[in-house]
Amino acid sequence: MVMARRCDTLRQNATGGRAETYATPNLSAPQAKAIGAILSGQTVTAAAEKAGVGRATVYRWLRDDTAFLAALDAARAELLLQVRMDLSTWASQAVEHVVPYFDEERSGISRELRLKAALAILKMAGADRPEPAGPPAKRESEAGSDGAAA
Predict the structure, then answer these.
(1) Burial state string for 89-113 with b = 16 or more CB within 10 A and e = fewer than 16
(2) What is the rounded CA–CA span in Å between residue 103 and residue 93?
(3) Which of 97, 84, 117, 70 lies closest to 6 in space, CA to CA?
(4) Residue 10 and residue 41: Cα distance in Å, rounded?
(5) Which stretches within the chain are classed as H helix?
(6) Cβ atoms of 73 and 2 closer than 8 Å
(7) Contact present, 25 and 44 (Cβ < 8 Å)
(8) What is the 8-class DSSP label of residue 1?
(9) Which residues lie closer than 8 Å to 123 by C-beta, 6 or more apart?
(10) What gap in Å lies between CA 131 and CA 53, rounded to an integer?
């Protein structure tokens, strides 16, 4: 929940605005307003006020309403994807600014320091954690009750 709130805040700051509603055909207007408020980092109480419903109603939606929960999850996933794309873009721009300093003749920076910087950039980009090839392996919890693959 904290990570989702942090991503919501990052996206809000990145766009310079707030989500007012999250429209989907399966939601009522108050539910869409509540999701917009939740995604912008507001409390459940504030989301209920924005939606024009009681706080208990929003808590009930969060506990029992599968359409509301699915829409909230989809909205968070969409927001997280957008934040990741923004961060990727910003990382590329940052690398473009750093690359000229890797030119030994122009930078005046030691080879050792340039190598450390290059390794740090690769690590931040996740190059030290390559994705495994092929389909993901089944987890033990998905394999069955006896631990053997079905």
Answers:
(1) eeeeeeeeeeeeeeeeeeeeeeeee
(2) 18
(3) 84
(4) 10
(5) 2-15, 29-39, 44-51, 55-64, 66-98, 104-107, 111-124, 140-143
(6) no
(7) no
(8) -
(9) none
(10) 45
Residue written as token pair 């005046």: 108
Per-residue pLDDT tens, the chain, 150 aa: give them: 333 443 344 344 434 454 455 556 688 999 999 999 999 999 999 999 999 999 999 999 999 999 999 999 999 999 999 988 888 888 888 878 777 777 767 667 787 887 888 888 878 777 777 776 666 655 444 455 454 444
Report residue 60 as tokens. Answer: 């009930």
Token readout for 52 is 């024009």
How far is C-alpha 90 from the geometric centre of its chain's CA atoms? Answer: 15
